[in-house]
Amino acid sequence: MTKHQKRLSVPKSWPVERKTETFTVKAGAGPHGEDGVPLVVLLRDVLGYVDSKKEARYALSEDAILINGDPINDEQRPIGMFDIVAFPGREEYYRVFPDEGGRLALTEIDEESAGSRLGKIEGKQQVPGGDTQLTLHDGTNVLVDDGSEYSSVDSVVVDNDDKSIVAHFPFEEGALVTAVRGNHGGKIGEIDAIDITPGSGPNTIGVSTDDGGFETVQEYVVVIDENFTGDDESSENATEGDDE
Predict the structure, then answer these.
(1) Quick one: CA torsion of 32, 175, 69, 142, rounded to 10 degrees?
(2) Same domain for 20 and 84?
(3) Which of 21, 147, 163, 243 has a C-alpha 20 to 30 A away from that of 195?
């Protein structure tokens, strides 16, 4: 298995330029599947805090970087949608959030907001003992006593310390959503229509925005809370650096 990743073939969500060099860092095993961006890419290409994988390893060895509240020691650990990237020593906190076109970007947040993260429910099942296990978009699981109020298209906010659910946002008309894929990736609006498609076809969602609206398939949108957006928040743009 190759240890390299060609830039031209990386997922569209990765914040890297594709035509400047041939290769970039390959993501390691972990959450978010193939959409996960290696941590070193964010540190180097987006934030500019390191120039190489070696410098990234040193920073991680000092427990200077937390992902969803946990120290990370693998510079290739995949980072994806709604992850919280924290630099306690710098007092800097970021949320990974879809930018225009669905490309992942870092949105600056405060320390309090960095204490929890958003997760889209993609599955649920009962486990021995009677609890319900909710599977989130990044592959992590959360246990709840009663799963009847949760749907597989809802969103929850999970506390980074005890992994408990602190908020629940149902997928319904009037809900605030962001498009994370497709031609409308990065756009935010409210659901004004849910068109249930008979058979196996995807449901269609109508979303109203400040500049009009759009339609997309249900799986391309995620319910969010208004605290996950803000006019005073800024996104970091991708810059280039060396791969080694």
Answers:
(1) -70
(2) yes
(3) 147
pLDDT surpasses 70 at 15: no
Please give the span between the terminal C-alpha atoms of the chain, in angstroms, as a whole number: 19
Residues 171, 194: Cα–Cα separation, whole Å: 10
Instruction: Report yes or no on 46 lying in a domain.
Output: yes
What average pLDDT does this structure show over 140-154? 93
Range of the domain at 213: 176-226
Q: How many domains, the chain?
A: 3
Q: Are residues 31 and 65 in the same domain?
A: yes
Same domain, 217 and 184: yes
pLDDT confidence of residue 144:
94
Mean pLDDT over all residues of the chain? Answer: 83
Strand-pair category, 78-79 with 37-38: antiparallel
Going by C-alpha positions, the residue among 156, 148, 194 that lies closest to residue 172 is: 194
Q: Is the pLDDT of residue 10 over 60?
A: no
What confidence tens digit (pLDDT) does each residue in 148-201 have?
Answer: 999 989 999 999 999 999 999 999 999 999 998 888 888 999 999 999 988 888
Query: Which of 66, 65, 81, 69 minimizes the C-alpha distance to 31?
Result: 81
User: Does one domain contain both 129 and 84?
Assistant: no
pTM higher than the cut 0.85: no
Burial class (CB in 10 A: 0-12, 13-18, 19+), 128: exposed
Residues 181 and 87 in one domain: no
CA distances for 35 relative to 7, 79, 130, 149, angstroms: 13, 8, 33, 29
Whether residue 10 is found in the same domain as residue 106: yes
At which residue do the structure tokens 């659901």 appear?
A: 191
pLDDT value of residue 211: 86
